[in-house]
Amino acid sequence: QVQLVESGGGLVQAGGSLRLSCAASGGALSDFTMAWFCQAPGKEREFVSAITWGGSRTAYVDSVKGRFFISRDNSKKMVYLQMNSLKPEDTAVYYCAARSTLDGYDLTTNSNDYNSWGPGTQVTVSS
Q1: Neighbours of 63 (CB within 10 A)
Q2: Ramachandran angles phi, psi of 70, nearest 5°
Q3: What spatial distance separates the first Cα and last Cα of the chain, rounded to whole Å?
Q4: Per-residue pLDDT reduced to its tens digit, 25-79
Q5: Is 45 left (phi over 0), alpha (psi -120 to 50) or beta?
Q6: CA nearest to 82, candidates 95, 68, 72, 94
Q7: Cβ contacts of residue 44 below 8 Å, gap of 6+?
Q8: Which residues contact 75 (CB under 8 A, 6 or more apart)?
Q9: Nearest to 32 by CA among 81, 102, 110, 94
Q10: Buried-most residue among 13, 66, 91, 92 (CB within 10 A)?
Q11: Strands 92-100 and 32-39
């Protein structure tokens, strides 16, 4: 498994931007498919975006397409989520997650398929 820690959350006005970072340790990041999920108060954890081990393929939930962009730097063991044109409905705790490539290479949106999770970082978008 790999240990994950998110950073970069905060309070931002609608229309603003944030860049979330996920630092990994304890394993080679290239052995993992990486994803971002979010959880708003009173709601279930939801898929936001995912990226394959080498970064060649990405996936996004429809609500963030064209606004959020996932990337990774395996040499630095970092995963990023660039969040632009933020909306109040983006307010949530954002989690970084990892899925071993031993379990498959597909970009799954199911949180149960991910083995490792960070503690989360709060993103609050004011109107």
Answers
A1: 12
A2: -100, 145
A3: 39
A4: 998 999 999 999 999 999 999 999 999 999 999 999 999 999 999 999 999 999 9
A5: beta
A6: 68
A7: none
A8: none
A9: 102
A10: 92
A11: antiparallel
